[in-house]
Amino acid sequence: MTQILDQSDLTDRAARLVEAARRAGADAADAVCVRGVSLSVEVRLGKTEETGRAEGDDFTLRVFVGRRTANVSANVVSDPAELAERAVAMARVAPEDPYAGLADAGRLATSFPDLDVLDAAIPSAAEMTEMALATEDAARAVDGVTNSGGASAGWSLGGLVLATSGGFTGSYLTSRFSLSASAIAGSGTAMERDYEAEVKVHRADLSDPATIGRKAGERAVRRLNPTQFATMKGTVVFDPRVATSLLGSLAGATNGAAIARKTSFLRDRMGERIFAPGIRVTDDPHRLRGLASRPFDGEGVAPEAFDLIADGVLQRWFLDSATARELGLETNGHAARGGGNPSPGSTNLTLQPGPQSPEELIRAVGEGLYVTEMIGHGANLITGDYSRGAAGFAIRGGELAEPVSEITVAGHLRDIFLNLTPASDLTYRFALSAPTVAVEGLTIAGR
Fold first, then answer.
1. What's the pLDDT at 378?
2. Is the CA virtual torsion 14, 15, 21, 24 positive or negative?
3. Binning pLDDT at 50, 70 and 90, where does residue 24 land?
4. Cα separation, 370 vs 373, whole angstroms
5. Fewest CB atoms within 10 Å of the CB: 96, 318, 333, 443?
6. Which of 202, 220, 238 is the last residue of a domain?
7. Does residue 114 sit in helix, strand or coil?
8. Average pLDDT, stretch 199-204?
9. Residue 396 three-state SS
10. What angle, 0 to 180 degrees and rounded to 10, lies between the N-to-C axes of helices 125-140 and 209-222?
11. How do strand 368-375 and strand 420-422 relate by DSSP bridges?
C-alpha cells in the first residue's frame, strides 16, 4: 500500500512524455499526472451499505506548436512517442491561440515549502467502518431522532506531478479524511432532516465521531414543526456552513477567466469598494494543513498569497498564465489543473472575522432570519442577481426563535457584499471559510 506515496516513477514518466513531445516537433510541452486513491464506507441503521475503493493515475500531455496547442490524455502510457506524435499532429491543425504558452520561466517555483498536507497513515476499511458506525450511533441516540439518513467515512489521496519543457519538475500529495452523518427527526409528513460533515487533511484533526453524529441529530430535531416566515425586507444572518456560498460567488465573480470573457458583474470594479470598510478576504495557498494548499500551481508557478479584498476594496483577480496574458497582467500562481488546460481558481479563500460574536450579531438584528440551509443555485454571476431557497430560524427580539422553511432569500450580490457584516467565529472547515455573517436589506419571501 505504501507504494502509492512514492511518485518518483510518475515523475519520470511525465518527463519522458515531455521529451518525446520535443522530439516529435513540439516547440514546448508539459505533462501532468493526477494521482487519485480513495476509500469510502457508507452505513445506515447500523449496517454497512457500501464500501468502495478507487485508484488511478491520469496523464495529460499538452503540446505547443507555435501558438497552437492540443492535449492528449491516457491512463497508461506504454508508448510516450506515440502519444506525443498524436498530440503534435492535433496541435498543427488546431486554431491559433494568441495567449497560449507555458508559464514564464521567471515565475516558476524553485523551492517547495512543507505545507503538512499529507497524512501518510493509510486507514483500513474496517477502521473507516468503525468511524461511520460510531457517527451514526451518536446521531440516532439524540432524543427526537426517529430515523437515519446514514453516515459515511472517507479517505483519499490526491497527487499532482508536473514536468515542463522549460525545466520545471515537481510533485506533491495531499490527503483527505471525511466524516458525515444525516439524521431524520419526526414522523409522517412532519419529518425533518439535517446533517453534519467535516473534511480534514489529517485524521487527527477530525472531530470525534460522537460529536459529529450528535450535531447532526440535534440539528434535525431543532428543525421540527417549522412555520413559514412572513414576507419582508430585512436582515438575514447566514450560518457559517452556508455563508461559504457567498464566498463561492465572490470567487467565481473574481475568476480571471470570467473577467476575460466579460461574464462577471464585477468585471469593471477592480480597485473599487465592493464591501464595507474593514472587510478583508484573503487567499492563502500556503496555509498549513489547508484543504487547498499547494507548493506550486498547475503550471509550476509559485502561488501567491494575497488579499482579494482589503478594507472593502477589490484588489486582485485569480489568474493563470493564459488568462493573465489576455488581460495584460501577470499570473499570480492560481492555475488549477486536472486533465486538460490549466484554469484559474481560488485556493484557501477566507472571509476574515469581525469583532462581534454571533450572539451579538443576532442580538443587533432584532427581527430577521437565521439561515442554516440553502437550496438551489440561484446566484447569477453575470448579472449579480441572487435568489435562493432557504430554511432556518426566525430571529425575534434578538434571539433565535421557531424553525422556518419554504423561504426564498433574494437580492443582488452587489448589495449583499456591500451590506455584509462578519462575526468572530471563523473556523477553517473547508477550502472556502467564513464566519457567521449578517446581510442587511435582503428580500425574504415567505407566506
1. 80
2. negative
3. very high
4. 9
5. 96
6. 220
7. coil
8. 96
9. strand
10. 40
11. unpaired
Nearest-angstrom CA–CA distance, 384 and 7: 43
Rounded Cα distance, 399 and 396, in Å: 5
Q: What share of the chain is helix, strand, coil (3-state, %, to 5)?
A: 25, 40, 35
Claim to verify: residue 242 and residue 168 sit in the same structural domain: no
Residue 440 DSSP class: E
Average pLDDT over residues 334-344: 88
Q: Find where cell 435568489 sits.
A: 387
Q: Which of 160, 186, 220 is the last residue of a domain?
A: 220
pTM above 0.70, yes or no: yes
Q: Regarding predicted confidence, which is higher, 216 or 9? A: 216
Residue 441 binned pLDDT confidence (cut-offs 50, 70, 90) = very high
Q: What is the pLDDT of residue 103?
A: 95
Q: Are residues 214 and 232 in the same domain?
A: no
Are residues 262 and 212 located together in one domain of the fold? no
Name the grid cell of 359.
450572539
pLDDT exceeds 60 at position 168 = yes
pLDDT, tens digit, 9 for 90 and up, residues 399-424: 999 999 999 999 999 999 999 999 99
SS3 340: coil
The C-alpha atoms of residue 211 and residue 195 are separated, in whole angstroms, by: 12
Grid cell in block for residue 370: 437565521
**Measuring CA to CA, which residue among 113, 163, 174, 97 is closest to residue 299?**
163
Domain of 411 in residue numbering reads as: 226-447
